[in-house]
């Protein structure tokens, strides 16, 4: 299959400016080197601790922030260089679901208005057709038609996320960035939203970039998973390969810390020393060397190459197979 989305060497630096003259004194290297493909109908999970660049990656792909460098192609179209008209068309195809559905909804807009906003902006429907489309979209997201005249504060967290999903789906997109879509929800509600997203994916042939710090959530929904650390993807593999046979020491540490259903089960939690270094001043060589339990001298000096070790299983570490 030809990929729906191709991301190559994506980079996003935020300049740090100081003082009255706003002198440029450095950069927060939020995303340094991110490359992956996404196939039609596929879900790629993107995991890592907060601040690793997952959200910035999603936003740069959608051009909600402008990338510093790199390439993004959607159905072959050069997204990062698309002009206004083309970008407008791309915006119909590529949508985002946010972590906190409440703050992304205008409290003074009814649900019908919120879901219809993009439809009106794009001039796609009018009058009765617009109303019908709004009701169609909120119904496929599991809400009843009479909800259209209600306001966001009248809904629970889970219902608001359904509304957030309905807004994203109104324009009938093919690709959705879901940025921690269930992290603000109770665990009991999380599964409902994940199941809804999986149903919608099948029904509407959607592709997801599913961003989360929670490896158990990502495991449920993803076909493939990428692990990010300090702005880089350090491992990328099919879900089964990544969870059953992790290659990178960081992935191994993250997986070792996932809570298990049976607390008596024997397991070795790998505790990482220290905090995540600042993305304004990342460590030399392998950026993970300050916390890696098996780091060697070479790790401080040379950045490991991101290589394919088994079919479709990529990682960046000097010591794999050594
Ligand atoms: Fe650890 Fe070295 Fe591998 Fe980096 S390259 S993950 S520091 S062993
Ligand atoms: Mg984030």
Automatic annotation (TrEMBL):
<protein>
    <submittedName>
        <fullName>Dipeptide ABC transporter ATP-binding protein</fullName>
    </submittedName>
</protein>
<dbReference type="GO" id="GO:0005524">
    <property type="term" value="F:ATP binding"/>
</dbReference>
<feature type="domain" description="ABC transporter">
    <location>
        <begin position="5"/>
        <end position="255"/>
    </location>
</feature>
<dbReference type="InterPro" id="IPR013563">
    <property type="entry name" value="Oligopep_ABC_C"/>
</dbReference>
<dbReference type="Pfam" id="PF08352">
    <property type="entry name" value="oligo_HPY"/>
</dbReference>
<keyword id="KW-0067">ATP-binding</keyword>
<keyword id="KW-0813">Transport</keyword>
<dbReference type="GO" id="GO:0055085">
    <property type="term" value="P:transmembrane transport"/>
</dbReference>
<dbReference type="GO" id="GO:0016887">
    <property type="term" value="F:ATP hydrolysis activity"/>
</dbReference>
<keyword id="KW-0547">Nucleotide-binding</keyword>
<dbReference type="InterPro" id="IPR050319">
    <property type="entry name" value="ABC_transp_ATP-bind"/>
</dbReference>
<dbReference type="InterPro" id="IPR003593">
    <property type="entry name" value="AAA+_ATPase"/>
</dbReference>
<dbReference type="InterPro" id="IPR017871">
    <property type="entry name" value="ABC_transporter-like_CS"/>
</dbReference>
<dbReference type="InterPro" id="IPR003439">
    <property type="entry name" value="ABC_transporter-like_ATP-bd"/>
</dbReference>
<comment type="similarity">
    <text>Belongs to the ABC transporter superfamily.</text>
</comment>
<dbReference type="InterPro" id="IPR027417">
    <property type="entry name" value="P-loop_NTPase"/>
</dbReference>
<dbReference type="Pfam" id="PF00005">
    <property type="entry name" value="ABC_tran"/>
</dbReference>
<dbReference type="GO" id="GO:0015833">
    <property type="term" value="P:peptide transport"/>
</dbReference>
């Amino acid at each position: 299959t030809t990929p729906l989305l191709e991301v190559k060497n994506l980079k996003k630096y935020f300049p740090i400016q100081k003082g009255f003259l706003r002198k440029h004194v450095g950069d927060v290297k939020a995303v340094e080197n991110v490359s992956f493909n996404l196939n039609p109908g596929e879900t790629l999970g993107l995991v890592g601790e907060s601040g690793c660049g997952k959200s910035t990656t999603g936003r740069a792909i959608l051009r909600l922030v402008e990338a510093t460098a790199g390439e993004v192609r959607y159905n072959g179209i050069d997204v990062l260089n698309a002009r206004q008209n083309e970008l407008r068309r791309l915006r119909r195809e590529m949508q985002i679901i946010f972590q906190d559905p409440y703050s992304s909804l205008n409290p003074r807009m009814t649900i019908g208005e919120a879901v219809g906003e993009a439809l009106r902006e794009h001039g796609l429907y009018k009058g009765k057709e617009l109303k019908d489309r709004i009701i169609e979209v909120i119904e496929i997201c599991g809400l009843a038609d009479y909800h259209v005249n209600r306001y966001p504060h009248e809904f629970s967290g889970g219902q608001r996320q359904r509304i957030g999903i309905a807004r994203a789906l109104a324009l009938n997109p093919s690709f959705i960035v879901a940025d921690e879509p269930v992290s603000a929800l109770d665990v009991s509600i999380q599964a409902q939203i994940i199941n809804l997203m999986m149903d919608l994916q099948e029904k509407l042939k959607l592709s997801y970039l599913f961003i989360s710090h929670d490896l158990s959530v990502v495991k449920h929904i993803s076909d493939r998973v990428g692990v990010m650390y300090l702005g880089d993807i350090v491992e990328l593999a099919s879900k089964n390969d990544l969870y059953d046979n992790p290659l990178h020491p960081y992935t191994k540490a993250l997986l070792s810390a996932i809570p298990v259903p049976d607390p008596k089960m024997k397991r070795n939690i790998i505790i990482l020393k220290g905090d995540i270094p600042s993305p304004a001043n990342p460590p030399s060589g392998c950026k993970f060397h300050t916390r890696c339990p098996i780091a060697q001298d070479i790790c401080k000096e040379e950045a490991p190459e991101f290589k394919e070790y088994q079919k479709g299983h990529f990682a960046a570490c000097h010591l794999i197979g050594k």
